[in-house]
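the two lines:
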Amino acid sequence: MSSIPGDLKYTKSHEWVRRGADGTLTMGITDHAQELMGEIVMVELPPQGGDLRAGDSTGVLEAVKTAEDFFAPVDGKVAEANAALESDPGLVNRDCYGDGWLIRIRPADASQFDALLTPAQYGEIAGE
Amino acid sequence: MDKETPLYSRHVALGAHIEPFAGYLMPIRYGSVIEEHLAVRRGVGVFDLSHMGEFRVRGKGAREFLDGLLTNNADVEPGKAFYSAMCYPDAGIVDDLIVYRLADDDYLMVVNASNIDKDWAWVTSHAGTCDVRITNESDETALVAIQGPKAQELASRLTTENLDAIAYYAQVQGKVAGCGAVIARTGYTGEDGFEFYVQAADAPAVWDAVMKAGQDFGIVPVGLAARDTLRLEVGYVLYGNDIDHSTSPLEAKLGWVVKLATDKDFVGRDVLRRQKEDGTSRLLVGLKVEGKGIIRHGTELYQGGRRVGVVTSGSMAPALNTAVGLGYVEKGLSKAGTALEADIRGRRIPVSVSKTPFYTAGTRR
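prediction for all of em together
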């Protein structure tokens, strides 16, 4: 049974989003998604300052056998990409809600965060 | 509706990730692909390959029939096996397969699961006037394989057959865990190993015996994902990825199983002879990724601004910790060391043509 922390928001495409005190949003992929993919051996992240549009592919996770895009949960700009994944992409598997985060976003419209899925709604999608 | 192999409940109990593959619900991985892969390189792994197709060809005309159908020579001694391509008249590949000569007039063809129906139609339509009886035993036959440096030690606990007497690419008919089996030594991972062809009803007992005896060797069940990375590391082709109707065995560098020098006549021979004389315009080569990235089936290859080929298989190679692949390139670019670029989602990364196998430390080639 994969974990779905109660204090995060989620997308249909298996991303999680956390709002920080400074209004930036941190995102990653869910435990369910990392478990489905298996060992992640490479991560392609967007450049800092790059524009994001909700629902657009913004990076790629490469597992041994497959590659999967991940998608921007909201409109905005990339505030930071997780540089630690360069040398240790396995962080996504080991700590997907913590050190294995993907990018931090400066959102264009704060209300888009509120409209994301609740843990309960995501739980239904993830088949829990 | 996808079929279950006789070991489906074992895979479920082991918590396997199961997906449809070639019409069967197959274990893709049980846990970590990398751990499964390395278990086969360092110890021993067990595979359920019951999805593979088995055709039995019996009768006085069996050898003659197979010699007319297959590119390789069917006239091996009873007890031996051979790898072969089976071609269309245009030299495109119907399938690649392993054939066991069980007795003078008794052969077992093992074909790819995805090709069972197509192969059956092809094989039976060529029987013509040959004195053969061909039966499709795919549903009644299960296949449990063990691969890895510890495979022989493990197999010796399951059978009283003299395993030293089974050479690479040979087989005996005997008993495994008390069940009648064809015990073969023909693998697809670059390691030593044994395949147990058994009756479907016996498969769970054989699997359980392998798992129990394997405990002492740290045995790991291995899914299709690691089977694919294992075969890719040693440069073996996969039907549907690297070879198919649009490729010939000579393009795929399988010339060693195409017997043109003999007077054996077989389907596709004329075109293959012409290809041998004139050369083919492209060749399958090994590819090593020099930059950061992973090449996959369909990735296009460039030299300068010119498209010069396409990747047909690609993955991380767990025992090498680098990304490798196979692909077709223009003939002039097939030399090891040739520098190319792969287009990964619009980004060009350097790759180089490489000799295969990529992984050379296996216990078998």
